[in-house]
Please model this.
Amino acid sequence: MDKSSAAKRIEELTQLLHHYNHMYYVEARQEVSDEEFDRLMKELESLEAGYPDLRRPDSPSQRVGGDITEEFETVRHARPMLSLTNTYSRGELEDWDRRVRKGVGDSFTYVCELKYDGVAISLTYEDGVLRRAVTRGDGVQGDDVTANVKTINSIPLRLKGEGYPENFEIRGEVLMYREPFQKFNQQRLERGEQPFANPRNATAGTLKLQKSSLVAQRPLECFLYSLAGNNLSAQSHYQNLINANAWGFKIPKDIRRCKSLEQVWQFIREYQEGRERLPFDIDGVVVKVDRLSQQEALGYTAKSPRWAIAYKYPAQQGITRLKTISYQVGRTGAVTPVANLEPVQLAGTVVKRASLHNEDIIKQLDVRPGDSVVVEKGGDIIPKIVAVNSHLRDIESPPVQFVQKCPQCHAPLRRNPGEAAHYCPNHNHCPPQIKGKIEHFISRKAMDILSLGEGKVELLYDQNRIRNAADLYDLKEEDLLGLEKTYTDPLKGTSRTVSFKKKTVQNILKGLEQSKTAGFDRVLFALGIRYVGQTVARKLAEHFGSMDQLMEASFQQLTQVNEIGERIAHSVKDFFAHPENKKLVERLKNHGLKMEMETKPQEENKNILKGKRFIASGKLENYSREEIKKEVEKYGGSYVSAVSARLDFFIAGENVGPKKLEKVKEMNVTILNEKEFLEMINEP
Ligand code: IVH
Model:
């Protein structure tokens, strides 16, 4: 495609992708399939790779993030980012209302909004394109985090519609919804990393990451709450937000114009009760005078506007007593300490337990059984202990000794250097680990045997019918029919009966039979090897082609696979070093599960780039970025997404900057031009 057609197509794709993105992330409507969206994005990426100078700052391809930002540039705010006067009482709110009336008379409207508990951000748009995103910093100057912010899908990179000022600033709050935050934190725990205390800390930490491609993987959201500029189209704050919404910004639905303080109070009360039902954290309500001219008349103190006030909700805290600490064992063997509390009423629910995460957190808090503790309901559904009243403690009370042995199977626990979690290493014989592993094996993304869900694995385990995933395939109708057990949950006071009737049993056997058609990558994922998630399983399966090849692979061969690091390689080697795991795989194979990829791996002579890592930069004569990637992979090599010391070859196209080449040279990476690359694969 010539350059001018490419430019035209890039523009078309940009508009389409921005539109689909907006519908999905702001309007919550999906207009195209994920596949179609990915296809269009790939087309755009490959055009941009072919014509790097046609890549625009507002390109939808920027959402995936990029390489290291060495340091954030400090940027001075055009207008200082002020804070808000806080109040916790109705009396003070009434005082403020009187001051407003004194300033502008009785004819005005308030706007009530939620006070989002996130990180403030200022976005600058020029000619409808996002140019800059800066953190609040000290209010006068902040960090330029544009590359990171561009990965947030609900922030428009290019505005839609018309009527937006040529140059304006919009401010808002970046945050994480509670549920994705919990999932993200859980993953951190599983990887042995420290969890974040709440969504706000996770957001702040994420915005300061130096690699925007990592930011792109974290679930950030952004709500906009204030427009600034000399040429705004509307005369009121509320109308400005409505306009901003029409230009593509995500404006919260929980916003209301109020005629009187009574209505404001009503809003505050509604959300005080309803805040738990919101999918994100708030810490209060912000009340603003609506008309911009009246805002101006009221003006500012040194720190905050006189036309706005924050009514803060009392923190959802309570004081109670820590009775005991118990320890839970998860599927991977991670041992989590849990605080058992004297029941306490917190924001409408009775709290009996709190997570203590790991040994370090227990040490930091120095919390001990019998202590009076402050519990808080924050971002996590499970409340946490935030402080200990150690002065009330019995002087004899000893510090907590973290359990040394698995509470379930009594194996001595281990803690890997540099990791926060303790593990029970008895992976194949510890009951919760066995059950957890089998439950993972049958789960939807693994072998998808849902007819075995809902407590059936637990029952089969308890009745001694299964001890590992291969045992499932030995089950016969007569082993199953009539099994029944009632389980009670002492904490919830509920009970449930699991029973195996004829139809259930038939469904289970059918499900097991059907699972034998699942591809090798799913079988590999289903084994539940630590750190081998769906994507890693697919990569390994594609690279090695079969279970036998994978089991024979050396540590080095494993780390040579694109995106497989040492941690994963160790875990894979450890897994297959266990005779029991080998036997499990052997039995699964004999039962007819797929142990090979369907499509044959590359022929021998086509594997000349095997184990080598490549990246290309600059404009290439014969290939687009997507094509060179395919070419490298066709010959068994891996194409990586960023320059690092682990790279083997750097293919330099036209116009690669001298600085970049210098950096690559320093890392001892071999630099090739396009011709040399072609010679390497024998295709001059
Ligand atoms: S308006 C001049 N509206 O609260 C102040 N701020 O204490 C303009 N915040 O740094 C801020 N939700 O990060 C405004 N609906 C909302 C808000 C909000 C949260 C934060 C913001 C600011 C802090 C001020």
